[in-house]
Amino acid sequence: MNFSWAYFFETLPYIASKLNVTLSLTAISAVFSLLIGLVFALISYYEVKGLHQLLKVWSSFMRGTPAAAQMFFFYYGMANISAIILNMSPVVAVAVIMSLNMGAFVGETIRGSLLSVDEGQREAAMSLGMSGFQMTTRIVIPQAIRVALPPLFNDIINLFKMSSLAFLVGVRDVMGSAKIEGAHTFRFFECYACVMLIYWIFTLCLTAVQKRLEKRCNAIY
Amino acid sequence: MVEVTNLSKTFDNATEVLKDINLRVRKNEVVAILGPSGTGKSTLLRCLNYLCEPTTGIIRVGDVTVDAKSHTKQQVRALRKQSAMVFQNYNLFKNKTAKENVMEALVTVQGKSRAEAEEIAIRLLRKVGMEERKDFYPSKMSGGQQQRVGIARALAVNPDVLLFDEPTSALDPELVGEVLSTIKQLAEEDSTMILVTHEIRFARNVATRILFMDGGRIAADGTPEEIIDHPENPRLQQFLNFVSK
Q1: Which of A60, A97, B50, B198 is most exposed by smallest CB count within 10 Å?
Q2: Can you name the CATH fold of A5-219?
Q3: Contact between chains at B94 and A221 (C-beta distance less than 8 A)
Q4: How many Cβ pairs within 8 Å bridge chains A and B?
Q5: C-alpha gyration radius of chain B
Q6: What is the ipTM of this complex?
């Protein structure tokens, strides 16, 4: 079977047109994983009793199991015990799992960046009589953001690629539409080449943005 | 000005770093604390503003008294406002310029307007010879310059007592002088100061009183003449012999 360039260029626009599904999945999950991650990070930063230990286990679990398994477990498994999940549209289910999964990673990223602000500066703030809140908002967070932004952007790039798992539950995103198209024409070679090209180009764009962000973050102080 | 009563500090691993310390520092005294490493000098200093929490004992600075047995968050904050600390590693806020470092507590803790805080900051930076660097971030300053900003930041809150925790220990030798002369200038202005230092000669010149700490206790307490020139305590003699070599 030969690689048909004609078919490739014919199919590319169709598959690329599903980028909106992929991107909205990424965007929504990015927002929620940032929120989840922020809450997680604050809990472990302040070592909130009880929650803090629980979170450690949760985070280890979410980061130590494949996202695909989590998705099936949630969407097909837990649907047996929850009517909400049973009636959930596949896109929402994917967004939930992506947010929960990436939230654990984002939590670690943010926690690390908070800890990167050295103890000495915190002691200085305390010795001047600043409150814990003033210290966190005026000294720790401004510095932590600068540290966290580049790796957070990395997490978002990973989220973008992770969204391709949506096809597993029948969502017609970039990956899903290629799978369906390929099943009709048996031209898997071209269809998945389209998928890879689309993801790669978009990741390149995101990486370029990240590089600039990193430069700016380093240049501030 | 500062009164420490029956202060003890035991770390988690059961090492007793401070053993029943009693100390009174009067207004305008410049007290230097000397002694071998690991004898609790820094711990004592850090207990004075509760960066290090004593196990037992009562600490009074200015008109705030805190008992280790029954201290509250509010008391600790009130105590901290009585003093200001200059750290070994400067500990400047890295996201703030020299001027903003000095202004920070004036605005957040004392509630002064930015304009007023800025005026005070500029005046203090001039005093420590750092006015020209007021808009520099710490990363763009030498260690000596950072430490002088650290001193200005401590002065800004107009503390009853200034605490110096080995202020020159992290500096390159050629930068020690500029920091010491800044501290000397403050001592001559009748500030109340307690400083932990390894600079014996400097302590001899600047301090009005010297404490020698050994094994978690104050082993000797006297004027610079008594302590440095005519040491009686054998451990102190040994220490002075060792550092002067």
Answers
A1: A60
A2: MetI-like fold (1.10.3720)
A3: yes
A4: 64
A5: 18
A6: 0.91
